[in-house]
Amino acid sequence: MLTLNHYHNQWIDLRSDTVTHPTEEMLDAMVKADVGDDVYQDDPTTLQLEELAAKMVEKEAALFVPSGTFGNQLALISHTERGDEVLIPESNHIVMHEVGASAVIAGVQLRCIPDVNGCITIKDLQYRFRDGDIHNPRTGLICLENAHSSGKVIPLADMQEIFNYSRSLGIPIHLDGARIFNAAFALKVDATDISQYCDSVMFCLSKGLCAPIGSILAGSKSYIDRARKNRKLMGGGLRQSGYLAAAGLISLKKMVQRLPLDHENAQYLAKRLREIPELEIFDDRLDINMVFFRIKKKNFDSDALVHYLSKKNIKINLPMAEEFRLVTHYWIDKRKIDWVIMIIKEYMQKAL
To answer: Which tens digits make up the pLDDT trace of 64-74?
Structure first.
C-alpha cells in the first residue's frame, strides 16, 4: 500500500530517458577501466566499445562521441560540403532540438519535408531533390530518425523505399538512431535490419541505456576515418575516454536487452493514465517508451500541475504544443508509476 511519504526522499523523473544514471556495475567498471589516449587510438576500452558498436549495427567501423547532437552534427559535416542542402523531415531532432548547429558547423542548409511523426512520402522527397541547375544548391544528404521522438517508429518498408531512391541518385543517408534499439524491439527486428538502410547511423548510450555520457557514430571505414578527423576539429578528441566507454560497453552488452521492459511500463503508464477522465492519451504513439497526453480542459494551468508534482518529488516537463510527454526508463517501475498516478489524480480532484 502506497503512502503519501513513500517517495519523500527520492525523485521520480519522467522527463526523459536521458536522466538515467549509471548502475553500480557501470561505476565499478569505470573505476577499473583499462585506458590510454584515444586521440592516438590507443585506449583499449574505447576501441573495444567501437568494435562492438559497429558489429551491432553491421557497419565497418564506429566512433565514440560525447553526445547525440555531437554525433548527428559530426555525421553531417563528414557527409557534406559547405553550401549543400540536406533533405530531412521537418519534425526531426536535427531540425527541432540541435540549436541550428547544421548551419554553424557543417555550413549546410536544411530543406524540410512535411512529415507525420517522422514518416515522409517518397513523392515529397523526390519533389525536394535539387538537380544541377546553376541556381540550386547540391542535395548532399538525406536524414531520417528512427525511433522518432514522437514515440513512433518508421516502418522498414518506408526506409527501404527511401534508401533505394537515394541509391538511384548517389546520395547518402544518415540515420539519427538515438533510440535505434527501442525501434528494433518495437518493429520486432534486429537493429541491423534498420541500419542496413543508411550509410551512417548515430545512436545514444545515455538514453535509456544508463551510460552517463556518450553516443556512437557508425559507417564505412573510410567515412569513420573522415569523421575521426572532424571529431578532433569539433573538440571531441577525448583522451582517456575508456573510463566512459566502460559504461557504454555494459550499455550495449546488457542494458539493450532490457529495453522491452521500458516499453511494457510505458503501456502500463498509459493504461493507468486512462483512468483519469480529464486526460486524452495519444494511443497511436505508444511504440516505444514514451507516453503523450493532453489535458482536455481549456486554459488548464500546466505550470501549476508541474509545480505540484515537483513538490511531491515527481519531475515532468512542461507541455509542448499542449502535449505532455512522460518517458519510462531503467529507474521507473510499476510501483513508481502507481504513485505518480495517485498524485496526478489527487491534483485533478483539487484543481477541477
So the answer is: 999 999 999 99
